[in-house]
Amino acid sequence: MSEYQYYEFHAVDRPLTQKQMAELRRFSSRARITPSSFVNVYNWGSFKGDPEMWMEKHFDAFLYLANRGSRWFMLRVPARLLEADIVSPYCAEDNLSCRTKGDHLILSFHSEEEDCEWAAGEGQARTRARRQTEEAPRVACRKGGRYMGRGRSAHRHAATQTVRRGGIPSPGPP
């Protein structure tokens, strides 16, 4: 079975400049690069860039998928909208981590499912993985709470407090 790795980056807050796009092109001759994205699929070889550094410098969202069941999703949000001390209690094991870089908070969600059933087509795989990725923040919060001995009511309370402080909207009850 050949290796399949999918990398997708998106710039939401500001478009990439021509100079930045040329810098990214040095990492891949086959990638689709636009002022708002970098997308590439690897079947042989691997990505030459550093996703964490790219998130710090260029992008606001990142998605990585591999046929062995690995998933990695990152979001960069303004730190004024979501403070690290609000998120930190939910960072457990390797599922969710956060770090501050400048005026931004970078959230990183990881999932490793070795027995993951891989969809037959590339488009189907991306669609299914995106649906699962939409659920990742809520799953990470639930897992984080469970590791820290918190129940569902604690999650609802934490989400409510976050909204009241001007943070991210609550995803609803887990």
Characterization of the model:
- The protein has 174 residues and is α+β, with helices and mostly antiparallel strands.
- It has one domain.
- It contains 5 helices and 7 strands, in the order E-H-E-E-H-E-E-H-E-E-H-H.
- It has helices at residues 18-25, 51-57, 84-87, 122-147, 152-164, and strands spanning 5-10, 32-34, 37-42, 61-66, 70-78, 96-101, 104-112.
- The protein has a 7-stranded antiparallel β-sheet with strand order 2-3-1-4-5-7-6.
- Strand 2 (32-34) and strand 3 (37-42) form a beta hairpin.
- Residues 118-122 and 143-174 have low confidence and may be disordered.
Shape category: flat
Q: Please count the helical segments.
A: 5
Strand content is 25-35%
Q: Would you list the SSEs in sequence order as H and E?
A: EHEEHEEHEEHH
Find the structural class using helix and strand composition: alpha+beta
Task: Present the secondary structure layout.
Layout (H helix, E strand, L loop, with lengths): L4 E6 L7 H8 L6 E3 L2 E6 L8 H7 L3 E6 L3 E9 L5 H4 L8 E6 L2 E9 L9 H26 L4 H13 L10
Antiparallel strand pairs: 1-3, 1-4, 2-3, 4-5, 5-7, 6-7
